[in-house]
Design goal:
The chain contains 18 helices and 20 strands. The radius of gyration is 25 Å and the shape is globular. About 40% of the residues lie in helices and about 25% in strands. It has helices spanning about 5-10, 15-25, 35-40, 45-55, 80-90, 100, 105-115, 135-145, 205-210, 225-240, 275-280, 285-305, 310-325, 340-355, 385-395, 400-410, 410-415, 430-435; strands at about 30-35, 60, 70-75, 95, 125-130, 130-135, 155-160, 165-170, 175-180, 190, 195-200, 215, 245-255, 260-265, 330-340, 360-370, 375, 425, 440, 445-450.
């Protein structure tokens, strides 16, 4: 799924991305590469001082061939210790001292190793110790116990360690993430850029996938002119970096309205709460329809490149036939009814996604409002982070910039989702049983036949 080999190679090489983005959109971003050999032999205090003079402060330290913000740190203290820690993190190294290790109980040793081996904040497995690959925590603990009988320190390094680290200037501004797709004629479309707020120092792996510290706003809170500029620059970057099918480009909108892109990502997060699905929903596609798009467009892209042309063309024709047959399939209509509270909204989201993935049902979400009325809720409002964001989105209505993207992507939506109504519409409670075959009540978590 996703972009081809060339685009994927570019998508996992951050320094090369920077060079191509400079050519594509004319952006300037100060950066420098520090090799492992240079790091091991340098006067680190002088190196730190020279980097802050050359690039500025704070510094962003990046492992150059990683994704999901693994191996990314921000040096925000003028501290050699903090700088060295972030560099080691990006080289995927960890130093243990015998005096510290030997004070720990067996449980404490296990807990420390768990933290070191957790890829979201540590260096992952397998590891290298004394030029030997270690694959299991239990074996690592035993080898460390033996090692510290004669040595004062141990260097743990990932078997997938980096040979150099990318140092970049810290960009101040509104952080955003934007998906970019193409239609079957390979015309490129930007999805609504999502602004990311967070109390953490960076949009890292934990804040992306493991916590609720980040908040999202679609689109970015800025002028239409800035949104159009981000859209146009994103499409240019997608094209000139050789991207195709699906790409996520992250960036910053600075106070002076300058746009800085970084890290074009050829495999965006694919969990139900990932940004790409929220952005696809804004133009009318649910998760199942989005995945269908990713698969079908990937096949079309491979055919365009002349790879396994005959078999892939057969596969595309079969997939097209399946889509055509599905349009005439008699599915049962299900009303997914939820109240204005967090628990029921989350249950409705889950049930809607589950029913959408079946061949037997067509779900529609219905909000049982506190005022006693019932309202049909369109797909774009069912992918908000929580009930508060859902309420704000209803009050605000469709943003004019998002409306322009809805209009542009009408052919994609028509093929994968059919006719999509983006309006919130009132429906009488008595009409539920007449219009729907089943009703799922989030309040009781029961689905009953309406007739």
């Amino acid at each position: 799924m996703g972009p081809n080999l060339l685009a994927s190679a570019i998508g996992i090489h951050k320094p090369f991305q920077n060079e191509l983005l400079k050519k594509a959109v004319g952006q300037e971003k100060k950066s420098r590469i520090v090799s492992k050999k240079e790091w091991d032999t340098a006067d680190r205090s002088s190196l730190f001082s020279n980097l802050t003079k050359e690039i500025g402060f704070p510094l962003v330290v990046k492992a150059p061939h990683q994704g999901s913000s693994i191996g990314v740190g921000i040096v925000q203290k003028r501290s050699l210790e903090d700088f060295s820690k972030k560099m080691s993190q990006c080289f995927f190294e960890h130093v243990l001292l015998a005096k510290d290790w030997q004070k720990l109980s067996k449980r404490q040793k296990k807990n420390q190793l768990d933290k070191i081996l957790d890829l979201s904040e540590g260096i992952g497995f397998p590891l290298i110790l004394n030029n030997e690959i270690v694959y299991h925590p239990k074996a690592l603990m035993a080898k460390l116990d033996t090692h510290f009988l004669s040595e004062e320190s141990a260097i743990l390094a990932s078997a997938q360690a980096e040979d150099f680290v990318l140092i970049e200037e810290f960009i101040e501004g509104k952080e955003f993430s934007m998906g970019i797709i193409q239609d079957e004629n390979f015309k490129i479309f930007a999805l609504p850029p999502t602004e990311i707020h967070s109390d953490s120092e960076s949009f890292d792996f934990k804040s992306k996938y493991q916590t609720n510290t980040t908040k999202k706003r679609i689109p970015i809170d800025t002028s239409i002119e800035n949104l159009q500029k981000i859209e146009e620059m994103g499409i240019r970057a997608y094209r000139d970096l050789g991207m195709n099918v699906i790409c996520r480009i992250d960036g910053f909108l600075k106070e002076n309205d300058e746009v800085i892109f970084h890290d074009p990502n050829t495999l965006p997060g694919m969990s139900p709460t990932s940004l790409i699905f929220k952005q696809m929903a804004e133009v009318g596609l649910n998760i199942t329809q989005s995945i269908s798009y990713f698969v079908r467009q990937s096949i079309a892209q491979r055919i365009r490149e002349g790879k396994n042309h005959f078999k892939l063309k057969q596969l595309l024709e079969r997939m097209n036939s399946d889509f055509e047959n599905a349009r005439f399939k008699d599915k049962k209509a299900v009303a997914v009814v939820f109240g204005e509270n967090e628990t029921e909204y989350a249950l409705a989201q889950s049930q809607y996604n589950a029913l959408s993935a079946t061949e037997a049902y067509t779900p529609t979400c219905i909000c049982a409002a506190k005022n006693g009325n019932f309202y049909v809720i369109p797909v774009n409002l069912m992918y908000k982070a929580n009930i508060q964001d859902f309420g704000k989105a209803i009050s605000a209505g469709i943003h004019p910039f998002v409306k322009s993207l809805i209009d542009k992507t009408s052919d994609i939506r028509s093929f994968y989702a059919g006719g999509v109504n983006f309006e919130v519409r009132r429906i009488e409670k008595g009409q539920l049983e007449l219009q729907y075959d089943y009703i799922y009540w989030a309040s009781s978590q029961e689905m009953n036949a309406s007739k």
